[in-house]
């Protein structure tokens, strides 16, 4: 789940882009990159966080009033710095592109590019497939007199050929800034504007939180299949009117997106509180009577506060997060994830000692976090620990940009709730019901529809049987290179449940 930005205004954009990318750091920690254009492309990218990659020396070189940026969470290809985004190609015009998502028919697209256009991508990053497909279609147009219709036509063909999830931003050198979405609009993308005495600055970003930091006004979400083009005179053009998506990733609302972002009219923080309140019915039906509700920082907070309010039990922050640690789930190896979880969270003994604690997290995916948390809460003296997930059990792989492509690593795909409870050594485990989640996010409420594939196994992009296999093979080939097995690793196979 990468983060992307694109800026176009009267002055240099690199500083705004660093701000924007920093606000999106939660979407990707593997690599960061930026590309600006004045009379040439200026590209800076590498592995690490935004603050590591863009030092003042590099920023000075990123001149130009148009540019794109990326923070990467790898879902295709390796973690090698050569695969960091953006990517550029010199023909036609000079294109620089970033994307968030995952191309599922990557083998077919690569084959077509090779056979029809004799293109060989440099890396196995799926972004290259989107970029070269778009470039190959664009170069068939009248390049001496390129029109917006030509650009949108090339976008449309790209959207027909490339399947999966992709929110993209492209600099077309000398022409303008283009953003387009996959036909289902699975990933978020928003357009903002800031007026300055020198003229407007337009920006695209994965999440609206970027605009709050930078004093931009939110203009609109980029809808499913929609394309938006800002031309060199700062006129704005739309391919298709905005429509609500029918398959927006619900896991963005549950975990990925930042709480202060509003996506398709839904404030993420509010949705998480609602998810927490919704859990009350199940918690009460389970006969659980906690003395206090605590959250797993960071993403469990709003659901925990919602549940506490709904069941009338005090909420306390019972676990402290080391603010210098990032997210654990998006680390690419199991050893790395375990290391982050260990360093990240510490219980406040005096709050939890002698208490029956309901600990709320947004999700249990591989069980890395929950297992550790239950253990440290018990060590801190909690008498009972109930682990409560605001997401339903994750039983199916994601092929749209979350790196959980193999069902073998999803604990709920392999074990029953009782077995999971034993494995994480909790007294009770309570999951959100999928039906309740679907009701809460129901389309008729006027916010569009969602993709629930990781909970339901129903994929919105048609029959994906062969793509599931292709993606699994692709991920396995990279895992084998980078995984070090550890004692508690659940990545090769979900854990064998143990008694306690
Ligand atoms: O069952 P697991 O495989 O451990 O995955 C689920 C955990 O990972 C995420 O936390 P993360 O540390 O990534 O981010 P956060 O700080 O936003 O909560 C999520 O919020 C859960 O805590
Ligand atoms: N999570 C994402 O959006 C990843 C984008 C792309 N598939 C990559 O691996 O770079
Ligand atoms: Mg978490």
UniProtKB/TrEMBL annotation:
It is an enzyme of class 2 (transferase). Mg(2+) binds at residues 299, 361-362. The active site is at 2 (nucleophile). Residues 2-233 form the Glutamine amidotransferase type-2 domain. Signal peptide: none annotated. Residues 474-500 are annotated as: Disordered. [4Fe-4S] cluster binds at residues 249, 398, 451, 454. It comes from the Bacteria. GO terms for molecular function: 4 iron, 4 sulfur cluster binding; amidophosphoribosyltransferase activity; magnesium ion binding. GO terms for biological process: 'de novo' IMP biosynthetic process; purine nucleobase biosynthetic process. Its cofactor is [4Fe-4S] cluster; Mg(2+). In the C-terminal section; belongs to the purine/pyrimidine phosphoribosyltransferase family. This is Amidophosphoribosyltransferase. It comes from Hymenobacter oligotrophus. The gene is purF.
